Amino acid sequence: MASLACLSAPSGLGNITQLAFGTPVHSGNKRSIYQSRRKGSVSVRNEVGTDVSVDGKHALLQSGNDKLQITRVINGMWQTSGGWGKIDRDLAVDAMIRHVDAGFTTFDMADIYGPAEDIYGLFMNQIRRERGEELASTVTGLTKWVPSPAKMTRGVVEAAIDRSRKRMDVQTLDMVQFHWWDYANKGYLDALLHMTDLKEEGKIKTLALTNFDTKRLGVILENGIPIVSNQVQHSLVDMRPQQNMSELCQLTGVKLITYGTVMGGLLSNKWLDVNVNVPFMGPKLDTPSLGKYKQMVDSWGGWNLFQELLRECDKIGRKHGVPISTVAVRYILDQFGSHVKWFISQALRLAANVGFCWFQPSVGGSMIGVRLGLSEHLRDSQSVFRFQLDDEDRDRIASVTKRGKNLMDVIGDCGDEYRG
């Protein structure tokens, strides 16, 4: 354990290193009072040895007694919010049932994603009526709460949680991922404290974050709030989470859920050898996600370098019989974090002898956006679990990505792109 403590040095995570291995927190704030009132109810360090990959296709997210199993490929429902085509609710529900039948039982949404929570509620109602509670119990709904940075009273928080419960047609929300726009407003701690109360009252099963940076994740953990995951942007182009964030996740057991992993579809065969500078010659950047991630490509290294990345991923894909998008997802699901790779290599050697490895991938699951009722990529999603990248594959990818800019220097830490 002493050797692990030195991992905090590059990123200044000394306090978190202490947290990870059981040193008590004495913050002197109202959370300390809260902890004494609820003594024993919150574990800052997640269970050592928790399976990130339960059977290859699933991950167990855990903080103390709070546990939630998810599929490692998650159905992202941002596409229901408009901009990708009109969603027919009946067709959307039918598509969700097909995803469940294919084994992809985890859906991600938000209170601000248009009708996403309502569609999920219709889907859950139909699953219960037509397929029974047993199948319904295998479905997991991850929602987000994205409030304006106002005063976070118990009433404000509970009203938001109850609204999502009603829309999603569930008594208990499997996971609430909390977003906060303005770190200068410390109301995010108040909101999370109230959410912890609501969790203990049975309205929420697990607490998580979305788009929080490493520093604020550390602050939240120091305040004893039981976070199981942080959802962040992460792709072959955007490797920011594998710097300080991943180090903190390895130390505390918090897992990453990633979005933008196929960059709205840019990381796919569709965009291979496409010159976006020539109008009317090829696919269009005609969705909110394609526009967003094209800007990320420009910040990282430009379209020509991105084409080199697509060509290398295509070579890897043809080698394994999978498309470029599958290579991109597999690569991210395998990530451990740049600061711990040497320790992991040693741990894996030990694991070969003793059959156990403490280190687990920092990524619990990756999002693939689903255009419900409009298009499907179920075969591509299934193929993620039918192959493994080897050292040659990773070297091919690195030969390109190392020439791109470090987006930590360009944008800042995870989520900073939303805070200007």
UniProtKB/TrEMBL annotation:
The organism's place on the tree of life at top rank: Eukaryota
CDD domains referenced in this protein's UniProt entry, alphabetically: AKR_unchar
GO molecular function: oxidoreductase activity
A Pfam family recorded for this sequence: Aldo_ket_red
Domain NADP-dependent oxidoreductase: 73-400
InterPro entries according to UniProt: AKR, NAD(P)_OxRdtase_dom_sf, NADP_OxRdtase_dom
PANTHER family found in the cross-reference section: NADP-DEPENDENT OXIDOREDUCTASE DOMAIN-CONTAINING PROTEIN (PTHR43147:SF2), PROTEIN TAS (PTHR43147)
Name of this protein: NADP-dependent oxidoreductase domain-containing protein
Organism: Marchantia polymorpha subsp. ruderalis
